[in-house]
Amino acid sequence: MGFKLKIRTEQLSDYGEVFNLNYLAFGNREDESRLIERIRLSEGFIPELSLVADENDEIVGHALFSKAQIVEEGNRHDVTVLAPIAVLPSNQKTGIGGKLIQEGLKRCEALGYDFVFLIGHPTYYPKFGFKPARKYGFELKQFNVPDDVFMVFEFTEGKVKTTIKGELMYPKSFFN
Predict the structure, then answer these.
(1) Alpha helices in 5-64 (DSSP H)
(2) 81, 82, 80, 92: which is closest to 26 by C-alpha?
(3) DSSP string across 113-125
(4) Is residue 173 within 8 Å of residue 42, measured between CB atoms?
(5) Measured between alpha carbons, how far is 96 from 44 in angstroms, rounded to an integer?
(6) What is the pLDDT of residues 85-99, one digit of tens each?
(7) pTM over 0.90
(8) Burial class of residue 5 (count of CB atoms within 10 Å of its CB; 0-12, 13-18, 19+)
(9) How confident is the model at residue 1, as a pLDDT?
(10) Looking at residue 80, what DSSP letter applies?
């Protein structure tokens, strides 16, 4: 019998397993697991954008896309951010993270979002179409990160040049 992987929406009954998955994936620390809990309780939580990778009834991966805003001179534009994303250590480097990202991007687009932002590894995320965000006029001051790890994905090619600029504002759920 082979492995059957499916990407699905996280259910309430998955919360404990998702907590443990993130704990293990991030080196036996609770920071990301607690972040997920705070996001779930916030206005920025979009249930259908909390995804799990389910392999033979075991959760082996999780990705959470949630609401944030681009702010410029009082104008606010809703966007989504990807954070966190995790795969069980024993299942890493098997493509599960990529499948979670692709499904999440599909769902964000279907919900009408123009952009997804993240802070992430500069050689991994560009494979999925993410580009350095600062060179498109976006700023991030809440976290002090290098230009190559602050990235944006645009659903309509060229839209970053014509629609909005400003500072990405992560909601307060991202901070203790």
Answers:
(1) 15-25, 31-40
(2) 92
(3) --EEEEE--TTTG
(4) yes
(5) 25
(6) 999 999 999 999 999
(7) yes
(8) middle
(9) 46
(10) E
> What confidence tens digit (pLDDT) does each residue in 105-121 have?
999 999 999 999 999 99
What whole-number distance in Å separates Cα of residue 173 and Cα of residue 176? 7
Task: Evaluate the omega torsion of the peptide bond into residue 89 and state whether it is cis, within 30 degrees of 0.
Answer: no
Q: Are 124 and 95 in contact (CB under 8 A)?
A: no
For 163, the token pair is 């629609």
Give the distance from CA 43 to its chain's centroid.
Answer: 16
Q: Which domains does the chain have, with CATH numbers?
A: 5-174 (3.40.630.30)
Which token pair is 126? 């560009």
Element (H, E) at 7: strand 5-9
Kindly tell me the burial class for residue 19, based on how many C-beta atoms sit within 10 Å of its own C-beta (0-12, 13-18, 19 or more): middle
d(CA 128, CA 81): 15
